[in-house]
Amino acid sequence: MNQLKELQKSSADGTKTIQVRVNGQIVEREVHIRMLLVDFLREELGLTGTHVGCSVEGRCGACTILLNGENVKSCLTLAVQADGANILTVEGLGTPDNLHPIQEGFWEKHGLQCGFCTPGMMMSAYNLLKVNPHPSSDEIREAIVGNLCRCTGYEHIIEAVQYAAERLSSMSKEEREKLLTY
Amino acid sequence: MYPAPISDYFAPSTLEECLDLLYHYGSQAKIIAGGQSLLPLLKLRMVDTPIIIDINRIIELQEFGEKFLEPGKRILRIGALTRHKTLASHPLVLSKYPIISDAAKYIGDVQIRNRGTIGGSLVHADPAADLPVPILVLDSTLRVISKDGERDFSAEDFFLGLMMTVVEENEILAYVDIPSPQKGTGAAYSKHSVVFGDFSVISVGARVTLLEDICQSSRIYVGGVNPRPQRAVNTEEFLQGKTITSEILQKAADVMAEEIEVESDMRASNTYRKILLKHYGFNVLSKAIQRAKEDQF
Ligand SMILES: Cc1cc2nc3c(=O)[nH]c(=O)nc-3n(C[C@H](O)[C@H](O)[C@H](O)COP(=O)(O)OP(=O)(O)OC[C@H]3O[C@@H](n4cnc5c(N)ncnc54)[C@H](O)[C@@H]3O)c2cc1C
Ligand code: FES
Ligand code: FES
Fold first, then answer.
1. Distance CA B191, CA A180 (A)
2. CB B92 within 8 A of CB B111
3. ipTM topping 0.85
4. Nearest Cα to Cα of residue B169 among B293, B47, B277
5. Per-residue pLDDT tens for A151-163?
6. Which of B109, B112, B113, B115 to mutate to test the interface with A (most CBs of A within 10 A)?
7. Vertex B51 angle, CA B131 and B157, to 5°
8. Positive/negative CA dihedral, A88, B80, B139, B294
């Protein structure tokens, strides 16, 4: 993997150049210091899978991404704080021809209706399955407390995550790691 | 929603560098730790700051573990940057200081706990926040540092009122020291919130030291109802010297509900809060007693 450098350069004009690795690719941009990480992903990088739901208080979880391996709300982080970080968004999970087991689970178990909450849900599921290969339905509920869904009533989402857990545990250790270690 | 423009951003990697920045820019700068309280305030423009100092890279603030300050005086040192996630799940916390994980494990949600820090929570001093109560209950000492020197505060002196602490603009909270448990001591915390994992409507934290079922001393705080957590002094006095039975704990919870001044707000009426206090007061005291018998702080 390419070496990431932290530029740490600040120019007192309200902007700063940052370098991040997003879904495996290193990008460098000059951004406004006040820019939120979610807006950086959507507007600067065109990665619009990461959604904005509540926008102020950081409660809905639609903007959830993985920042250095942990799920966080990208509306509660400044883009400049992500300088030097490793980011995974929903676009980095799988492709239409080759869905990630988590995406497959949501497809197979009808884990969505309007789909607005889905990218954030999947990132929280990713974070859970990384550390807990066989979560109980209560553990799944606890893992998605920070992700609101207004459509599904959650039952199908829980089944989707369980489906993904089963698919992943049927794989070899190497395959599993490739799919869960970002 | 965007914060107001910010003209400069620093991410110092040592405490010394950070103190220099605070010395120069203190009145114009805001520290950011987890950002889980600061970002909403910036977006609402309730805070408007020209300069942001990001402390996340400072190793000194990430300290976490037991230490001997002097022979025989063991403490748990929690660096200001310790995340709620660590407090909720660290084996040392779970085995010896479980009251801290009682409080940390229901802060917000997974994403908030992955980012939020103990320093940010204590300095933000939201009256409904979870961590201030156990920090008070455990008689902690808080170290506040600036370029001019260091100041130590007992938790009781640290919190001044609604979102107000002793920390000045050019200062930083560096760590919290918690004395190691005495024999026969147990402590517990619980909260009631409208939605699971939300800020508390009321919260209770208690520490009890027993000698053969007799209460030697206790420390009780109630959070979520006043500008800062209130100490339940009468309840502590009531328990002093008593042989602990379920009936005594029930009475103690009544004393607690009697002495704590509670107000009505949009989340709960004061009558409802009094009822909650009796319920949670009893449960938390029972749990603390149970842990005292197992020597769990
Ligand atoms: C949706 C949601 C739900 C939440 N639910 C709860 C809950 O149930 N219970 C609860 O207790 N909290 C809750 N919180 C708040 C959360 O716990 C925050 O993590 C915490 O209050 C602030 O910590 P932080 O590290 O994010 O601080 P920041 O937001 O970075 O900073 C907060 C303030 O402290 C200052 N500061 C930070 N660190 C230091 C330091 N070391 N020295 C001096 N000043 C410092 C900053 O300048 C700022 O003024 C919730 C937040 C959200 C968004
Ligand atoms: S947009 Fe709702 S939590 Fe970030
Ligand atoms: S599917 Fe519509 S919000 Fe969850």
1. 35
2. no
3. yes
4. B47
5. 999 999 999 999 9
6. B109
7. 30
8. positive
